[in-house]
Design goal:
The structure is a homotetramer.
Chain A (H helix, E strand, L loop, with lengths): L1 H12 L4 H24 L2 H32 L3 H5 L2 H8 L2 H8 L5 H11 L14 H10 L1 H26 L8 H12 L12 H17 L1 H20 L31
Helix pairs in contact in A: 1-2, 1-3, 2-3, 6-7, 8-12, 9-10, 9-11
Chain lengths: 271, 271, 271, 271
């Protein structure tokens, strides 16, 4: 029994064996197809023609993911830890909605089911599990977390002040009906999105808008600067771990087997 | 008396003692709630229903901040210096409007009061005080100040020239009613905001707009480059201050207590 | 015969001899003129007046490029390799459409021909051949390929989740008619393009939009950070290859012949 | 005579003496006021009320700048060189339009005069002369010129291809009336400006638009990367020129007189 558990464990959690790799690939395609069905089902014309097929696909994958979920709990050395881990919760959330849709019936069930169905899109998050390369990016973001927080607080404080000014200057007559709406407009402007659903009409309002745009245009440089500085350091550190033992030069990619300068074999994580 | 002053001083200005930390936290929440009340009060539907409650909240916090302001003056070793410091002025500005609203009455008082009320949002600026991490960012901006000034002058000169060209090419018939409005359009375009409230209609106008966009698209690289270069230097300098005395490696975070490479204790600001 | 082949080969493939340089220049102008004719022919007013001339230009260059294509095959040492190389395929694709337009006749031929004609614009891609400087950029992108892939997957997953949320929150009544359309809106927002053809109307929708914008605004920092970090390394490496043998200083441009610090001659790719 | 010439020369060209500095300041204000008059004169309501005053201001400064121009020629050691230098030409162009407006009279003179008047805004370019700090930025741009050229060619080729595709997919019915207009739309989209005056209506068109946006969003990283990498190198080089002779540390600002680490005096441009 324990032998079979270990075997299934290797297939489901392992990524080195051929069986484990195949399982991961199948899972990725299953996630993509089931999400694709939800997305296409939302198009009115496709729903009327293929609605039943989409329902079949949905239930097929829901059952498949349910079996997979319980297998993961069964195999896991520490089931409780898995259940409350990030991916344990994502796995659970991605199967619950379909079952919930069976229980809740009534007059306004349509909207609710749609809401619940949509949540299954979180299955896509599972894909993240398959990416090892994301680590360098995440570590850089982690190192920069405090500076990014300061940046966001600055942007939000700025948005409140500019939003209030615009509410007073332009007023409800020009679409700035309340301070929250003015703040929404300010963020649309500062982030340089610029829908144009609300635009300043008065000369003073346009002047403040101009200043806000130039501010936003410059402020965008700050997170870029922070992340670039951290990333450059992080990439440099990763590259410098590996030095060629023949010519001594560094800066090889993580998966290089030969020195890019002299062609000698690389020993890997040396020194 | 002096003992009590010192005690209150520790609570209000100090950030290391539990009492000082608690006071800071309470102050942040008080600022957020009072700003929130102003913002929500501006929504017409909420004003008619909860207008009185918002007024109560406003006055409660106005009195609280007034007491805090005078306490700060009373405690401060150099009261005049505090009053004319950046935060002293912000503290004053954030309580004045509510009192001013009492004095000014008349026909067109409504708009004035609204204007005054809005100013109290500057209370939010107080939040900046609680951020030490902002220093690296500010120092980088300070080092880059001259280059940023050159950049802004270039952008503004460019906006004037492109604005004038567009005024002549498109003219009042296509929404470019005056040079100031054309300059407003140019900045909307160069910063890549692009509301679409004014758009070029002639072929020549669209060609100039295209060039302006590509210029703006490239020019955004300059402040990013400036700030990144300064930030990378600044972060590197901060990290390099701290060297592990065991393995000699650097690049630790400012609050690290152990070397991230060999685990040995870090002495802090060494050599 | 072989001597003539070698001679033509020098003209067509060579870039060092005066004849080879002239051939390349003529080719670039020929490509620009033929593409220009297709572009201008699409303007209705120009088509009615100069349509015949554009057709003459088109056929003249089609025949020219056909002769050039067969010459390249004839001259090439390994014709099959050339035919299936990137530029071999581009060369073929850029002449096929004109001939295809002769064969396909019928009721709906107009649209097809237009489609085919437009493909000839790919001729412009030939221009890339003439740029050596692109190498540093491409190598940086190649080194960053995995991180860029992770970034794109993250953006797409995010777009799916935000798109679904907006579909549920705003619904078909406010323009979010299906999940694919909501995803389209999300990408328009996250990339800060912001057409404004679809905009959130509900308070909750505007709040989600605000969060999406701030996310997009920050996320833009990640590819910039990745590419900057790689580019800085790559440029540094290229510059450092060349050291002045007189004063020992580095960081010269790739085509410098003299040291920018002491003026001594540079030996090139030394050490 | 020669003594007086030298004296005036010191005032006009010099920037070190008090008189030279005052002259430069007066000139900057004169430029700003004369440009401001042109800009404000373009506002219809202000033109009807203050039109005459704006004309007086215009002529006052035109005469002033004329005197200044001839003084510069008179004083200059090599008058021909000055006349054909960048600023010599700018100085000339900034005074010509006002005189030209006197000569050209007739039916459609209004538009012409406006065009000519607007050209005087180029006077603002004179401001550039007063900025020394721009040098580091310009040198970085110069070092990056080839990479920026490659980048622009790539963006333009891409815009042509996407523009053609959108013209075929969406067609004149949805606002994509010609390939030039489609290319205009593509650049509006790729640069993330997004006016929304033309938007894709078909599903395929929206898909291509989405890909174009993501491309544009990523491509913006390339010029930023190029300029950041060059700037970081350039700033580093400038900072490293100056080393403290006491503690040996580098990275001081160009105008620092004392070492920022140990406070010792800096000798300046030392090895």
């Amino acid at each position: 029994m324990s032998g079979m558990r270990a075997k299934i464990g290797l297939v489901i959690f392992g990524t080195d064996t051929p069986a484990g790799k195949l399982f991961d690939l199948v899972l990725i395609y299953a996630i993509l197809i089931s999400v694709g069905a939800v997305v296409l089902d939302s198009v009115a014309s496709l729903h009327t023609r293929f609605g039943l097929w989409f329902a079949y696909i949905e239930w097929f994958f829901t059952l498949l993911f349910t079996v997979e979920y319980f297998l993961r709990i069964y195999i896991s050395q520490r089931p409780v830890r898995y259940i409350f881990s990030f991916f344990g919760l994502v796995d659970l959330i991605s199967i619950i909605p379909s079952y919930l849709a069976l229980l809740i019936t009534g007059a306004n069930y349509l909207l609710l089911i749609r809401m619940i169905r949509v949540l299954r899109v979180f299955r896509v998050l599972k894909l993240v599990r398959y990416m090892e390369e994301a680590n360098v990016l995440l570590r850089s973001l982690y190192l920069a977390r405090r500076k990014i927080f300061v940046f966001f607080v600055t942007v939000i404080v700025l948005s409140f002040i500019v939003g209030c000014l615009m509410f007073v200057v332009e007023g409800p007559a020009h679409g700035f009906t309340s301070i929250p709406k003015s703040i929404y407009w300010t963020i649309v402007t500062i982030t340089t999105v610029g829908y144009g659903d609300i635009t300043p009409q008065t000369v003073l309002g346009q002047f403040i808008a101009t200043v806000a745009m130039l501010l936003g245009y410059s402020i965008i440089a700050i997170p870029t600067g922070i992340i670039t500085a951290e990333l450059a350091g992080e990439i440099g550190r990763v590259r410098n771990e590996k030095a060629c033992q023949n010519c001594g030069r560094r800066s090889h990619e993580a998966d290089s087997l030969h020195c890019r300068y002299c062609g000698a074999g690389l020993a890997g994580e040396g020194k």
